[in-house]
Write a structure and sequence with these properties.
The structure holds 2 protein chains of 2 kinds. Chain A is 23% helix and 22% strand. By secondary structure, chain A is α+β, with helices and mostly antiparallel strands. Chain A has a domain at 496-585: Alpha-Beta Plaits (2-Layer Sandwich). In chain A, helix 2 (60-75) links the parallel strand 1 and strand 2. Chain B is globular and about 65 Å long. Chain B is 27% helix and 27% strand. Chain B is of the alpha/beta class. Chain B has 7 helices and 13 strands. Chain B has 2 domains: 4-209, Rossmann fold (3-Layer(aba) Sandwich), CATH 3.40.50.620; 240-276, no CATH class. Classes of the chains: A alpha+beta, B alpha/beta. The A-B interface holds A 47, 49, 89-90, 92-93, 159-160, 163, 175, 177, 180, 198, 201-202, 210-212, 214, 216-217, 262, 298, 341, 505-506, 508-510, 595, 597-598 and B 14-18, 20, 23, 32-34, 36, 188-191, 193-195, 197-198, 201. Chain B: Keywords: Electron transport, Transport. Chain B: Belongs to the ETF beta-subunit/FixA family. Chain B: It holds the Pfam family ETF.
Chain lengths: 599, 277
């Protein structure tokens, strides 16, 4: 098919040697439609609608902002149209998190959440931290004051909490539009943000229009909030356009893989929280595991594995590390006799304080994990994400409803949001833990980091006057394959560990097949030349959904990259970790992606 | 002729989701699972909207029987181009007992109430694969039926239909009013775009009906089925195999095979029995 496509379409005007690289990318963000003869005469007008505030992303931050806005509007008896667009087919279907929730922000937003039936059903009763070796476990006492201590927190199924937040939002009058992805940022003539446009539908895999082609819709707003979660694709564009990252460090990330298991009742200890570091990762690869026993009437555990994306060995496969961790003698007994019922993965932020960009620009704001407020040692980001959404709402509201619209630009600029955030507990919290993650970049790796944490955080509460730096972007950390040794992973046994494709099937992910792959490559020739040539194709290993495969060419000599876009679970790891930074994740047709249920 | 078409739309678990059986073995887990409109119902809605665009019919009414969430399915149909929606509210235990027979009775009653000229349904639902509702509705109304339609064209007050059958394609001509069920190749459904969804949310063109003995939609929702887990089967002796061989030889089928493989497949806790004769 690639060859047929290539002979029909015009060769791309890039460095492609003529006719030797099969065309992979057909998306219009790489091959613009105004120069494409197949799009001549196609109606490209878009229907436009006006709202007061448009929020991109129906996750904890976006929904908290929406709810807070409508709460204020209802309290002050003002009319405010708040629209939330979300790419998932239903609110909560793309949400994936451990999770141990600190209910502080939720209580501030909806004080009577318990009476309203918020799904916080599992208070933490036991908190266990271990360092694992291949066969043994070293317990680490969980003293009060250590960041990962979980007293007062709840184990939640974040997807269910987000779904509940969606219901609360609808109750206060927010307009929720799941199944519609924000694909483009719109700008006024003065350069400020005008709103967003949703994705076009009905484009065929080769980039040509189908009979059912329809343009997306434009949603204009006085101010647009971007809450796309970790490494949002629109935020990526905004960083460039408004230079939001010039005074902060690059963001660093980790990938989190998660499964839900229905276990044997005898092994079930509701409220128990287990974390571990160490095996199977070496001391220089950041990461660890979590295992939470939920208490919602059935013996369900949520477990998963996080690997820092600054790892250096291109042969590392986070998925297979996760699968082999489950066989550890401390973990496997819990899972024996159980049944795996769900799987998913998502990237998460690890940059913390040092990586927070400029948060406001004319016409818009960044909220939640998109700019990144995760408290890394606590491994919690939901409470800060929600608080950032609420602070954004509180900063915007008076400006929106003021007698005179006080703004130099057509889109509202709300720098008060960043001010309020700096004065809030979010800032203090992130400042206190700012040095913990970077402290792992030393010869002793994990152990150096733990010693640092013990001294400077537990004793000195993060008050040391210096701020450690990160090592640069995650994409630059990979060493060439010839300098590293391949890792021998054990074969999955089908009872506790599993292969990749059956795991992907459990995520329920699917996309309309006949659409351009949304994993776009800026240059189609780079994967084989660089990623495969120098790094042995790390995307085959770090993608938790098997999207990237290097397969032999039909002609026999050489390989080509095959992108199985339908498998994508929207984790964004490829966009982060691609050593050539050639992969640009854009949003597929809305409604596609995983179908997580209470993940 | 009223020019009104009734289209049935069913809310089912999305086809890409991995189904899980409930721990008590009485059904599948539906709570929180991604649902969407049955793909064959989407094709039916698309066909109805196409007929309206060709000005062959005047109004498209989308009907769904189910709990509160069925309204989302109706809204999708409205966003695709249906004019009105009717939500027949069936929830809880009643919803578990809702099957093709009950739905056909409801559709038949609605068709009379709405003076419908045509009923368009999907050929089957992807959750139960019954393939019965269209046929039963036609029988209850004593209307002609054109099932597994891959081409539909209206000619005056008759309908030319091409049906996909086991032997190939069958061309039939039926009178209106009629029931048509849509097969895969009838059309490619359009997308429900956001402006249309917003419209359908604002305008709320959906009526609510609650079937009970007072309304004309009086439908007996008596449970017809009970779901039980299969019993644990014990491994058998080869007697069944020998019996089969005996029967085959007796019947003079003249099979000159050296062996017959006898197997039985069970689901759930049943063991697979394999024996060779």
């Amino acid at each position: 098919l690639d060859w047929q496509l290539f002979s029909v379409l015009q060769p791309a005007d890039s460095m492609l040697p003529l006719m030797s690289t099969p065309r992979i990318t057909t998306h219009y963000t790489i091959h613009p439609r105004d120069k494409d003869p197949r799009w001549e005469g196609v109606e490209m007008e878009r229907f436009a609608d006006e709202a007061d505030v448009v929020i991109v992303g129906g996750g904890p931050a976006g929904l908290a902002a929406a709810i807070r806005l409508k709460q204020l509007a209802n309290k002050h008896e003002k009319e405010l149209r708040v629209c939330v667009v979300e790419k998932a087919p239903q609110i909560g279907a793309h949400t994936l998190s451990g999770a141990c929730l600190e209910p502080s922000a939720l209580t501030e937003l909806i004080p009577d959440w318990k009476e309203r039936g918020a799904p916080l059903n599992t208070p933490v009763t036991e908190d266990v931290f271990s360092i694992l070796t291949e066969k043994y476990r070293i317990p680490v006492p969980m003293m009060p004051g250590l960041p990962m201590q979980n007293h007062g927190n709840y184990i939640v199924r974040m997807g269910n909490l987000v779904r509940w937040l969606g219901e609360q939002a609808e109750e206060v009058g927010v307009e929720l539009y799941p199944g519609y992805a924000a694909a483009e940022v719109l700008f006024h003539e003065d350069g400020s943000v005008k709103g967003i446009a949703t994705n076009d539908v009905g484009i065929a895999k080769d980039g040509s229009p189908k009979d059912i082609f329809e343009r997306g819709m434009e949603l204009h707003a006085k101010v647009t909030l971007f809450g796309e979660g970790c490494h949002g694709h629109l935020a990526k564009q905004l960083y460039k356009k408004f230079n939001l990252r010039e005074n902060c460090e690059p963001q660093t990330y980790a990938i989190g893989l998660k499964e839900l298991w229905m276990i044997d009742e005898k092994k079930w200890r509701p409220g128990r929280v287990e974390h571990s570091v160490g095996w199977p990762l070496d001391r220089n690869t950041y990461g660890g595991s979590f295992l939470y026993h939920l208490n919602e009437g059935e013996p369900l555990v949520a477990l998963g594995f996080v690997v820092g994306l600054d790892y250096t060995n291109p042969y590392l496969s986070p998925f297979r590390e996760f699968q082999r961790w489950k066989h550890h003698p401390f973990v496997a007994p819990t899972l024996e006799g159980g049944q795996r019922i769900a799987y998913g993965a998502r990237a998460l932020n690890e940059g913390g304080f040092q990586s927070i960009p400029k948060l406001t620009f004319p016409g818009g704001l960044l909220i939640g994990c998109s700019p990144g407020f995760m408290n890394v040692p606590k491994i919690k980001g939901t409470h800060t994400a929600m608080k950032s959404g609420m602070l954004a709402a509180e900063a915007i509201f008076p400006k929106l409803t003021a007698e005179t619209l006080d703004s130099e630009t057509a889109g509202l600029h709300v720098p008060e949001y960043a001010e309020n955030l700096k004065n809030s507990w979010v800032w203090k919290e992130l400042y206190a833990v700012r040095n913990i993650r970077p402290s792992f970049h030393n010869y002793f790796g994990l152990y150096g980091g733990m010693i640092y944490t013990g001294i400077f955080y537990w004793i000195f509460r993060g008050k040391e006057p210096w701020t450690l730096k990160h090592c640069g972007t995650d994409a630059n950390q990979l060493k060439p394959a010839k300098e590293c040794t391949p890792i021998e992973y054990p074969k999955p046994d089908g009872k506790i560990s599993f292969d990749l494709l059956s795991s992907v099937a459990l995520s329920g992910t699917n996309h309309e097949g006949d659409q351009p792959p949304h994993l776009t490559l800026k240059d189609d020739s780079i994967p084989v030349a660089r990623n495969l040539g120098i790094y042995d194709g790390p995307e085959q290993r770090f993608c938790p959904a098997g999207v990237y495969e290097y397969v032999p060419l039909d002609t026999g000599d050489g390989m080509r990259l095959q992108i199985n876009a339908q498998n994508c679970v929207h984790c964004k790891t490829c966009d982060i970790k691609d050593p050539s930074q050639n992969i640009n994740w854009v949003v597929p047709e809305g409604g596609g992606g995983p179908a997580y249920n209470g993940m | 002729m009223s020019g009104r078409v009734l289209v049935g739309v069913k809310r089912v678990i999305d086809y890409a989701v991995k189904i899980r059986v409930k721990p008590d073995n009485t059904g599948v887990v539906t709570d929180g699972v991604k649902h969407s409109m049955n793909p064959f119902c989407e094709i039916a809605v698309e066909e109805a909207v196409k007929l309206k665009e060709k000005k062959l019919i005047k109004e498209v009414v989308a009907v769904s029987c189910g709990p509160q969430q069925s309204q989302e399915t109706i809204r999708t149909a409205l966003a695709m181009g249906a004019d009105r929606g009717i939500h027949v509210d069936v929830s809880g235990k009643d919803y578990e007992n809702l099957g093709p027979l009950q739905v056909s009775k409801i559709l038949a009653a609605l068709a009379k109430q709405e003076d419908a000229q045509l009923i368009l349904l999907g050929k089957q639902a992807i959750d139960d694969d019954c393939n019965q509702t269209g046929q039963m509705t036609a029988a209850l109304l004593d209307w002609p039926q054109g099932t597994f339609a891959s081409e539909v064209s209206l000619e005056g007050d008759k309908i030319n239909l091409v049906r996909e059958i086991d032997g190939g394609l069958e061309h039939i001509k039926i009178n209106t009013p009629a029931v048509i069920t849509a097969d895969l190749r009838l059309n490619t459904p359009r997308y429900a775009t956001l402006p249309n969804i917003m419209d359908s949310l604002m305008n709320n063109e959906t009526e609510l009906h609650k079937p009970n003995h007072r309304t004309s939609l009086c439908v007996g929702l008596i449970p017809l089925f009970e779901t039980v887990a299969p019993e644990d089967m014990q491994g058998g002796t080869d007697r069944s195999g020998a019996m089969l061989r005996h029967t085959v030889l007796q019947s003079g089928l003249g099979l000159h095979t050296r062996s017959l493989v006898v197997f039985s497949i069970g689901i759930g806790k049943n063991k697979t029995k394999l024996g060779t004769v």
